[in-house]
Amino acid sequence: MTFRITCPVCGSRDVYEFTYGGHERGPRPAQEGLSAEEHFRWAQFRTTRAEAQEEWWYHGAGCGVWFSMWRNPATNREERPEPVDARGTGPTTEGDGE
Amino acid sequence: MNRLPATPTQKIDHDRRIRFVFAGRQLEGLKADTVASALWAAGVRTWSRSFEYHRPRGLYDLEGEGASGLVSIDGVPNRSAGTTLLERGMTIAAQNVSGSPDRDVYGALDRFDRWMPAGFYYRLFHRPYRAWPFFQDRMRALAGLGRLDVDARHDPGVRTEWYMNADVAVVGGGAAGMSAALAAAEHVDRVCLFEARPWLGGHLDWRVREVGGRPLRERAIELARQVAGHSSIRVLTHAPVTGVWGENLVTGFQVGPRGDGGATEGYDERHWECRAHTIVVATGALERPLVFEANDRPGVMQVDTAWRLARHYGVRPGEQIVFSTADDLALEAAADLADLGVQIVAVADARPEGLDGELAARLRDLGVELMPGSAAAAVGGRRGVTGVEIAPLEGGQARSFPCDVVVAAAGRQPEIGVLSSAGAGFEYSAHAAAFVPKSLPDGVFPAGRVLGLTDVEAIEASGVVAGLNAATACGALARSGSGDGESRDADERALGSAIRDAEGRLAGLPGPAAGSGHVRGPMTGKGRKAFLDYDEDGTWKNAAQCVEQGFDVPELAKRFGNFGLGPGQYRVPGQNLAMAMAELTGRPVGDIQCTTVRPPLIPPSLATLVGPGHDVHKRTPLHEDQTARGAIFRQAGAWKRARYFSDDFSCREEIRNVRENVGLLDSSPLGKFRVFGPDALRALQRVYISNMTAVGEGRCKYAAMCNDTGNIIDDGVVTRVGRDDFYFTTSSNRAGGTVEWFRYHTRYDGWDYNLVNLTDNLASINIAGPNARAVLSRVTDSDLSGGAFPYMGYREIQVGDSIPARCLRLGFVGELSYELHFLASYAQHVWDLLMDAGAEFGIGPFGLEAQNCMRAEKGHIIIGTESEQRVTLLDIGMGWMWDRSDTESRKVGAPALRACADQTDRLKLVGLRLDDTAGRKSPEGPADGALVTAREEILGYVCTTRYSESLGWRYALALVRDGRAERGTSVELFQDLGDGPRRFAAMVVPPHFYDPDGARLRG
Amino acid sequence: MFEILRPGFLKLDRLWEERPMKRHYDVVIIGGGIHGLATAYYLAKNHGVEDIAVLEKNYIGFGGSGRNTAIVRANQRTRENVRLYDEGLKLWPDLTDELDFNLMFFNCGNLNLAHSEAALSSFRLSINTANFCGVKSELLDRESCKELIPALDVSDRPRLPILGGMYHPPGGVLRHDAVVWGLAKGASAHGASIQQGVGVSAIDTDAGHVTGVQTNKGPITCNKLAIMAGGYGAAVCAMLDIELPIHPLTIQAMVTQPLKPFLNHVISSGGYHIYANQTLKGEIACGAHMDPQVNYTTDATAWYFKHQAEAMVELLPCLERVRFLRIWAGLADMTPDMAPILEGNLEFDGLYLDCGWGYFGFKSGPVTGKYMAEYIAREERPDILGPFTLDRFLRNRYMGETATTMKYGHYD
Predict the structure, then answer these.
(1) Each residue of B162-190: pLDDT tens digit?
(2) pLDDT (tens digit, 9 = 90+) per residue, B810-846?
(3) B716: closest CA among B705, B726, B708?
(4) Is residue A9 part of a domain?
(5) The CATH number fitting domain B159-285+415-507, selected from 3.40.640.10, 2.60.120.200, 3.40.190.10, 3.50.50.60
(6) Where are the domains of chain B?
């Protein structure tokens, strides 16, 4: 599948214009009191379901902007999950952000 | 010549003969013949031998549906006879043949089928195991179809490529596709129509049957005329679609005027890609083969093969023809062939009833015996058909008919390839006896025979519906009327009513005709030579054997029994395999999934995919100059860079000249950046592991970036050029990723800074050596004295009176050196100035390898050479760069460094001095990649090692487990590059071999 | 001389039994690929654990086991990896005998091509490591590469000229489907139950123990559960909210039309990111590309289809007029250090995990099955699996299978 991604600045573009930046995992945690294990978990460990997930993309061949969006890796379609609670947090990814 | 009189449906030119050679025989065809029609007309029956049994094969289809029709043409293997135009002087050879096509050495394999049941090779040849290589080599020798001469270069001709956008892409230029294109083009601006054949018209193109008082063929011509004349439709003929790749990217190739024989202008083939909003799939139907004994004999052919031979190529398909088919189109073909004067002996139709009355009557009038409810059971003849046995499907006496051609089909199957590759799902319709689309991806609209439709008016009407729906779905309404509410409403009403009208019309027309659910004829026996798949000789019996062994669904049988994996892919066994599995397991067909269709739907040649070729790399502004100086280039990341300036790859002379005199390096690919703005410092603090507040004006600070596992990912120098304004360099390989990296690691912060990549705007020249200052001072008035411009200083100077340059006094190679960064357009001028000024000092260019040796002598690392995934910044002895006190900035890499700071048993970067026991100066010794060992233990490895003329001994930079990394420790190096083990003694020394005090670069 | 036509050959038995599904098994294995089937086979054969179910959502070999290019080799970069893959390589002949099923091991050797001085250096490290460990491997100059494979273009014409190569004679290719079917045959013969069309939707636990699974065919209880789901392993682990440093990516491969044999070794090239070999049918099978985003589809891309042609024609210009026949894709579960994660009693007692093989899952299949079976049966990590722990990522102890960290999915 040569799918497309909607850049918030440039619109729909071929996926090969972008760099994948991985799961949304929230901002870099404060260093004070951060254990080694917490750090390496934050940096590397994920749950990866075949469901919509929030992730980061960089439009390097376009506007040079990082943005996050929801994509379902089982279909490669942009897709927001149904909100499960009032905050509208998706049910499937870890790291709600801060 | 076996030709029929000229008719308007023919493509050939009776007056223009074309000579060609087949299997050493001089033959003749006509202009516009395909290789297939010319061979058949010339009486050639065996074109190839089959994959496993080496059975004679030849004409079955004209569409490239399998291996039977593949021949070698002018040394190019596996070309499809049915779709390749005949060209003057072609030399055509049969494939998979030892000896002559008619007398093949391996033809005897055909008799050994008893010992070759499905999957036999998995159960054979391995007991005992040592026997296997013997059989393997013999099996391998028999493998493959076409033979490739690896030394011959075949001119791939002119290859181009074309990238299109479309509102609506229509695949298939038959009645449905053309109708869809016309309907869509009324509402959108860009419609692309792709047709695999060299002409539009689909199956109407050669049909002369009258519907509504007019021959169908005329309707095709009329539609083609409208399509060609429509300004919103772009038509590509002879342009097979290779696949649909998601979000409606349609790809294919197109045979051009040169590739079509004759023309000298234009292209041979071009690769094309079309990104469409929506797609209409009107790919029509394939024939579904009938399975019976010896159904692969040359002389057994598809309905459309016989029909098109006569109608398109004026070739008499055979002298006496028997049909064993199952739909009205076949009856029409039989009647039409009879009208053309071809003798049709009999027509068996698998359907017991429901035959088109008019056609049946017509056939009887022509004296053709019509046998409803019957089908072929077997054909006779060894190398070609001599007769056929026809028997009732429900049991009864078989009758033999002498004939030389059997036109055979079990029915039609929708050509689902394009739909399937677009992601559609299918279900079995028992009425139509066909797998028809069930679920469709967004924006994909099927039309015509792919829906199982058979009525020509319904086919056309379905095209109109699909075209209008496709136009609607791609936003035709949103874009019409240019915001004028009233006219938009009017358009919406018009389109809505057009769709309603078209759907109403389609509903009033006949749906799919009833199909025959039979796969095989009334065979007696197990179907030993009744083929479901011609490409790899998969028989009915093999399918039964698959089921016996547990491979009872199509996907498993496909792999175990080899059904649909050959050159024709899914086409021949396609629907039949699912129906056969149903019959063999006693399950309804509806419970069985077809096998997945995989792209490419039509195989493109590699040369066509390559197109004109793309050698994408960057050259420095000094590329020509370096070339003229004899540089040997290597690809380094995105760049082509000068690595050596002579064929002495030890670079002795280049190094000596820098060490003793002065040298120039084109370092333009070096990453060069400016970051400025109120938060520029905060951004630097985040991504650099060093303390960036300490960066001062006029000073270069050497700094590094790490990743979240503490590996060094970049190093370079940073200088402050204004209050919130910094200039920094990165390694060449990181230049492309630096902006991305900064922005990623500050993406939550909302900081206000600008980051500009100046890498390609600025050239860089490094002047290094004891005479560097002397040379540089001749081209600038700036004060270069040690006091005014010390080591690690940064100045903005004028070169050659007028060229502003950033000048960095650094020492990567361990000598006094300056790096000049300036506008790339001045590169040659500055280079020439320096070369002229340095002439009296013996200035010369040096390349990357010389730089590599000198920096290693100095103990300066290259990331990825002296570092790897197992070592952190600390492990390579660069921990001093890390500002441990700063936790506030949340530096990337800091937590990982902290976590590893006290770990033991890690690889550490050390220097090694290799004993030269013989006291010779010869560079004898291990190479990069040698192991550092102790008895049976691997302690680490050598990253870089060279014999140094400057030092007079061999040094190495190595990564060694810390227990053995103490200075003074003796270690052993091991090298065995397949030439036998060699061991070398070495001693751990500090990794700064050359000028350890730095006197030379500070001088 | 050879037992070709031994009695019983023509009796075409089912290769594996279709047994009714029970509600409880001692061991349940999720994933009917090479790893799952091999583990079942060795559990039953070597450890007497016969009450096993292998649950396969589709049909056996549907996933990576049936989609890879079946290349095997043992010239890894580090000793820990060489040890495992070397034993794996030596297992194929024995396994062929044991299973009485021809896995069609073609011991043709692998030639890896270098296009830069840096690649040559990294080859030397692998070659030295291999030879130090007793695994044959040698460095070739470009002329020797040409001698080995006459079809190679070793001139300066290609964008990345060939500078030399690493030749590894013990490597080769197998018929990947045969390995799946042979292991299924062996596992079934020793009593394991192979359940096709059974997909797991949830994993049941109780007080820190794994107790069973929920499937589309109802619940199954078990004493031990092994997740051996290949590219889907991370998704299965997610059912228990287990986080892993794994990114499932789509990897693509393709074949040309069948040709008479001319390519008698496996070739690969890091520069062009390609590996290729000629199958026993004569097709040139090639592939290697992965798009770097998490991807559970098995869709091929037009982009790679075209770029693969460019790379192939650069290395083997005689293929210019040859046609690509088929492209497909499978999943590769990538870890940052290109080494797998093999765990027992991970977070839950009785839970075993075999994942993160990336594109090394085929060549490691049987040998991993052998030792995972031992792990499961004895509840003690076998020495050879010692390095492949999950917690190495929490201690920053990568295994060094590649020089640089695999960037896939980790923005590092």
Answers:
(1) 999 999 999 999 999 999 999 999 999 99
(2) 999 999 999 999 999 999 999 999 999 999 999 999 9
(3) B705
(4) yes
(5) 3.50.50.60
(6) 1-151, 159-285+415-507, 292-409, 904-1003
Mean of per-residue pLDDT scores for chain C: 94
Alpha carbon separation from B664 to B107, B764, B832, C222 (Å, rounded): 70, 10, 11, 72
Note whether B593 contacts C: Cβ–Cβ < 8 A: no
A45 shares contact with chain C (CB less than 8 Å): yes
CA–CA dist C110, C283 (Å, integer): 17
What are the angstrom distances between the C-alpha of C4 and each of B53, B109, B998, C100?
A: 19, 17, 75, 12
Query: CATH code for B292-409?
Result: 3.50.50.60
Residues B110/B103, Cβ–Cβ less than 8 Å: no
Buried b (16+ CB within 10 A) or exposed e, B762-788: bbbbbbbbbbbbbbbeebbebebeeee
Residues B703-754 have pLDDT tens digits of 999 999 999 999 999 999 999 999 999 999 999 999 999 999 999 999 999 9
> Is A84 within the bounds of a domain?
no
From C298, which residue of chain A is nearest by alpha-carbon distance?
A: A1
Model confidence band, residue B152 (pLDDT cutoffs 50, 70, 90): confident
Share above pLDDT 70 across residues of chain B, in percent, rounded to a whole number: 97
Q: pLDDT for C184-214, tens place per residue?
A: 999 999 999 999 999 999 999 999 999 999 9
Coil, strand or helix: which one is C254? strand
* ipTM computed for the complex: 0.95
Reported as a single tens digit per residue, the pLDDT across C235-251 is 999 999 999 999 999 99
| From the candidate CATH numbers 2.30.110.10, 3.40.50.720, 3.30.9.10, 3.10.560.10, the one assigned to the domain spanning C110-169+247-334 | 3.30.9.10
CB B286 within 8 A of CB B415: yes
Residue among A22, A71, A76 minimizing CB distance to C409: A22
Architecture per CATH, C24-68+177-245+337-393: 3-Layer(bba) Sandwich (3.50)
Please tell me if residue A86 touches chain B, with a CB cutoff of 8 Å: no
The answer to whether C309 contacts B609, with C-beta atoms less than 8 Å apart, is: yes
Helix H or strand E encompassing B171: strand B159-171
The CA distance from A71 to the nearest CA of chain C, in Å, is 10
How far C334 CA sits from the closest chain A CA (Å)? 12
C383: contact with A, CB 8 A cutoff: no
In this prediction, residue C5 has a pLDDT band, given cuts at 50, 70 and 90, of low
Q: Which residue, chain included where needed, has tokens 């005998």?
A: C97
- Total of domains in chain A: 1
Q: How many beta-carbon contacts under 8 Å exist across B and C?
A: 318
Which CATH code is given to the segment(s) B904-1003? 2.40.30.110
Rounded to whole angstroms, what are the CA distances from B671 to B289, B681, B805, B889?
A: 63, 19, 16, 24
Q: Say what the pLDDT of residue A94 is.
A: 37
- Predicted local distance difference test score (pLDDT) of residue A83: 64
Residues C136-191: tens digit of each pLDDT: 999 999 999 999 999 999 999 999 999 999 999 999 999 999 999 999 999 999 99
Q: Where are the beta strands (DSSP E) in B858-1003?
A: 907-914, 931-934, 937-948, 953-961, 970-975, 982-989
Residue A88 lies in a domain: no
The band of A88, judged by pLDDT with boundaries at 50, 70 and 90, is very low
Closest chain B C-alpha to C214 CA, distance in angstroms:
24
pLDDT of B874 > 50? The answer is yes
Fold held by B1-151? Ubiquitin-like (UB roll) (3.10.20)
Q: Which helix (H) or strand (E) holds B646?
A: none
Between positions 716 and 745 of B, the ones with CB within 8 A of A are 739-740, 743-745
Smallest CA-to-CA distance from B382 within B572, B529, B573, B531 is with B529
